[in-house]
Amino acid sequence: MKKMQKWIALLLAVLMLSAIFAGCAKPTTTPEQGDTQQTETDTQGTETANQPAPQPQEGSDAAWDTSKNDEIIVTVINGYYTAGEKKLAEEYTKLHPETKVTVDVVSDNDAYMAKMQSLFSGDMTGTSDIVHANFLTNALGGNEVCFQKNYLRELSDVLDMQHPYQDGLVRDMYNDTILTEAWNAFGGLGIGALPFDKTGISFYYNKTAFEALGLEAPQTWEELLETCQTLRDNGYEKPITVGQEASWILASLADAGFRYEESEFLVQPGDAIYDAETMSANDGFVFDDNNLSCDAFTVTSTERMLAARKNDIIHSNISRTSWIEFAKLAAYFPANWIGGGADNITEFETQVSPILLNGAWNVGLLLDDINNMPESAQFDWATFNIPDFANAPEGFGTKMRGLSVLGNVMGIVPKNDADHDARVLDFYLYWYSQAGAQMCYEETLSNGNFVQGPCMINGVVLKDELMEKLTGFVVEGAVKAYSSELCGLYQTQEADRPIHNDLINKLTAGEIDIDTFLDGLATQGYPAMGYSLRYEYGIFHQKLVSAGRGKAPRFSPAILNNCRSKRSAA
Fold first, then answer.
1. β-bridge partners, 199
2. 239 domain residue, yes or no
3. Mean pLDDT over each residue of the chain, to the nearest integer
């Protein structure tokens, strides 16, 4: 059975250090011998999905010298979308035989990060042309550094191009909200990668086991806790099997409280990095209970958050309550869950645990695994999202927002060679077209690789069975990472990680009380990163000058008005 890497780092909020988030679950399998695999010779005996390849639009002639041969190198991580990417490369080379596309497959996340650091340490002569932008920025100092050093092509100008492989403009592939998420994912500095899919975290549950006990998917947080106790009372030692992704539940809990304080942590007019064009959503912002997406366009200030940390926000009522509620659920997790090596996928598939807390990127794999089990071992399963409170703690909203972010964030590395760069952009848009994305999905799924969630390109459709399993990942609004930062979840130095994890394990196991736990978090002097500079608490005079990225994406008035919604009286 296929196993996935358990640790997937949360994407930090806007204007914070870029962190690994989406497109970063990795299988434990290894690629074929040798990293680089050329599409024209590598068929792997795969089943063809028979999805029509994209075709050039009339009048979209090649913007490069077709009499010259050239090569495009796409560096990806083994396991997810790999088969689809190879199929795209193969079909594109048929269409443009003067341009060979090579898919360079790297074994895992860590190896990918190391490769990015190595490739970009010199004159960039041998760098890849298309890379995972989130891994690149995380490895090389953040979004600002990568834009300033020209490691990433800023793609805002591409939105108003005629799409070479489908009718209309490039921006017509997306709705405005998705483009905004892409803008915000790179700190409001520009668009470093066009959206491809969306991913998140939710609960998988064994419907067969639930029905045997007269249980249904919980509708409230309180019902979730009661369900877990019922499962334990009926012999399930581990009602919920989890990996380190489970800590993201803490982010949802903290968000239910800190979102009402969000205005305190936003970049304000007069701050050195405030830009009226891209941060106007911050002006007079008040969270609206009736519009859980109302803060989709707000921009968080790293410095204001650090000042709050200095003023001991970790001991605040919101932080305290978030950890208490989280510990209630984590009491049903396996022992030492945050640092343990348990194979939570297998524990769910073998019915050791009837609930799995995991990401959308495993839906396709679980569907394939369980459908291919002996009939006697199969079971019915589904997903449900983080349920709302029936009775919210004081200072918290009733509704819980889940985790939902852009995945497979592939960016372009510019080479300052107009001919070459034109080929790279053309292949990128070939991939990022309705027909190209559909082919990528179909080929990926037919070869047992995994997808991370629904495609964000308009018109791409997944089979009904897969979409049904993904329903638990559909959320209204989405948590913003600043909440979990404020309560001390992620801001720790690598050297202190064992201590940090031990504290969390002891709290969730009931070995220490909440005060001892919070004291332990507060005594770890967490540095934070912003714009690739180490900030000290409260430095508001530090001026950062943007190199300029072009205009922000164009959004409709209705979308922009959502930025200025107010909190309801209720």
1. 405
2. yes
3. 81
